[in-house]
Specification:
- This protein has two domains: 94 residues, Resolvase, N-terminal catalytic domain (Rossmann fold, 3-Layer(aba) Sandwich), CATH 3.40.50; 44 residues, no CATH class.
- The protein has seven helices and three strands, in the order H-E-H-E-E-H-H-H-H-H.
- Strands 1-2-3 form a three-stranded mixed sheet, covered by helices on one side.
- A hairpin with a 4-residue loop joins strand 2 and strand 3.
- The termini are far apart.
C-alpha cells in the first residue's frame, strides 16, 4: 500500500501536472486499485478527470471513490463520475466568480487589498544602496523575500521616491 498526496496544490491543476499524482501514475500497475477519498480529489476539470480516469483504466487500474462509494470501472460508476466531475468543475467556477466579485467590491469601496506593508520600499532601497548589499543580503536584513527587495528597488519605485522627496 502506497500513499500519495498533493498538499498545497490546487485541484484546478491538471492531475498529471501535480507531483504526487504524477508519481502515483508512474507507480501503479495492471491489477492495482486506486482508492480516492472523493472524486473531486482527482481534479476540478471535467475533461481532465475523465481523461485521467481513462488513462489509469487503460493501464488496468481500478478506481474506487470512498465518499461516493462506487467503482469507476462499472457503467453506473462512469456515469456518476462524469456527473460528479462536472459538479466539481462548476463548484470551482463558482468559487472563482465569488472571489472575483469580492475583490471588485473591495476595490469599489476603496479598501486596500493585500497585506499592509511593514517596511517602506524607500527604506529598503536606501539601505541596499548605503550598504552596497546584494538582493539576498537585503532580503535577509529586513526579513522579506528577494522579490520584495527587487520590487522596492525597481526603477518605478525609485522614480516615485524621487518625486516625493
Amino acid at each position: 500500500n502506497e500513499w500519495y498526496e498533493d498538499a498545497g496544490v490546487s485541484g484546478a491543476v491538471k492531475a498529471l501536472e501535480r507531483p504526487g499524482f504524477a508519481a502515483l501514475v508512474a507507480y501503479v500497475r495492471k491489477g492495482d486499485t486506486l482508492v480516492v477519498s472523493a472524486v473531486d480529489r482527482l481534479g476540478r476539470d471535467t475533461l481532465d478527470v475523465l481523461s485521467t480516469v481513462e488513462a489509469l483504466q487503460s493501464k488496468g487500474v481500478s478506481i474506487i471513490s470512498k465518499r461516493e462509494g462506487f467503482d469507476l470501472s462499472t457503467p453506473m460508476g462512469k456515469a456518476m463520475l462524469t456527473m460528479l466531475a462536472a459538479v466539481a468543475e462548476l463548484e470551482r467556477s463558482n468559487i472563482k466568480a465569488r472571489q472575483m466579485a469580492g475583490i471588485e467590491r473591495a476595490k469599489s469601496e476603496g479598501r486596500a487589498l493585500g497585506r499592509t506593508k511593514t517596511i517602506l520600499d524607500a527604506e529598503v532601497a536606501a539601505w541596499r544602496r548605503e550598504h552596497t548589499a546584494s538582493i539576498a543580503q537585503t532580503a535577509e536584513h529586513f526579513g522579506i523575500s528577494p522579490a520584495s527587495v527587487k520590487r522596492a528597488c525597481s526603477i518605478k519605485h525609485a522614480l516615485e521616491v524621487i518625486q516625493v522627496v
